[in-house]
Amino acid sequence: MAFRLALVQLAVSASKADNLQNAARLIKQASQNGAKVVALPECFNSPYGTSYFKDYAERIPGQSTEVLSKAAKENNIFLIGGSIPEEDNGKLYNTCTVYNPEGNMVAKHRKVHLFDIDVPGKICFKESETLSPGKEFTTFDTPFCKIGIGICYDIRFPELAYIYSDLGCKLLVYPGAFNMTTGPAHWELLQRSRAIDNQVYVASVSPARDEKATYIAWGHTTVVSPWGEVVATTEHEETIVYYNINPDYVDEVRSQIPIRSQKRSDLYKLTKVSE
Ligand SMILES: NC(=O)CC(=O)C(=O)O
């Protein structure tokens, strides 16, 4: 069944209260415009940066996730709640929660691959200074299709996307916050790669760009089709990106170019490591 997806490219400020209020307002707007699945960006309630995570962290359920649950219920939508810094048992995680139209949490994804990079003269970022990595794959069912969740840096790991498509996902959603170095170089390329590798829709949701922030987000919230085409995108201001997802198109592309049944599983295989 086709459905309208809305990606909220939220302007995130240092005020958590403003961020929550703004998110609730734009979620409502997206639903009034016909969206059945709405997604927020990575770190939607807090500026993105290791110096902020501890101060903005919350337990789940907590203030921010209560707002998400209420917004999902009031607007009768599936809500992919971007991410928030989560505190649990003395550890911090970068966590995405997902709500069904009844306002119940149906999935929780803790960023699996932490963003630790060092590009000399450009950007050095070490999420692992304050965050711990998640250990779970995260998918959830909707009446439209199964959806897989990754957070930002998770998109660089093709194995995760492959596992999600193998589990039956037809749409992968990555709340993310690429930056002014990696954004122009890799943001679209990675989405198109994951879409083509797996013949799925890929959607990535960024915060709007704030030139005064310590970490400047690239923006360019985007949807890519299973054919690898950019079918919806934007620049870097606060906005909502809409696209009508047709899960049947995934099957169409897969039957035209049947790489899934042509894999040489006699030669190679991806296996899940159990604990
Ligand atoms: N912020 C991230 O997690 C990832 C990112 O910016 C990149 O991979 O580049």
Automatic annotation (TrEMBL):
Entry's EC annotation: 3.5.1.3
Q: Which GO terms describe its molecular function?
A: omega-amidase activity
An example Pfam family from this entry, by short name, is: CN_hydrolase
Keywords for this protein? Hydrolase
Query: Keyword Hydrolase on this protein?
Result: yes
| Presence of the UniProt keyword Hydrolase in the record | yes
Residues in CN hydrolase domain copies: 3-247
Q: Which reaction does it catalyse?
A: 2-oxoglutaramate + H2O = 2-oxoglutarate + NH4(+); 2-oxosuccinamate + H2O = oxaloacetate + NH4(+)
Q: Which domain of life is it from?
A: Eukaryota
Q: Which residues form a coiled coil?
A: none
GO cellular component, alphabetical, reads: mitochondrion
Q: Which GO terms describe its biological process?
A: asparagine metabolic process; glutamine metabolic process; oxaloacetate metabolic process
* EC class of the enzyme, as a word: hydrolase
Q: Which family does it belong to?
A: Belongs to the carbon-nitrogen hydrolase superfamily. NIT1/NIT2 family.
Q: What is this protein called?
A: omega-amidase
Recorded source organism is: Mytilus coruscus (Sea mussel)
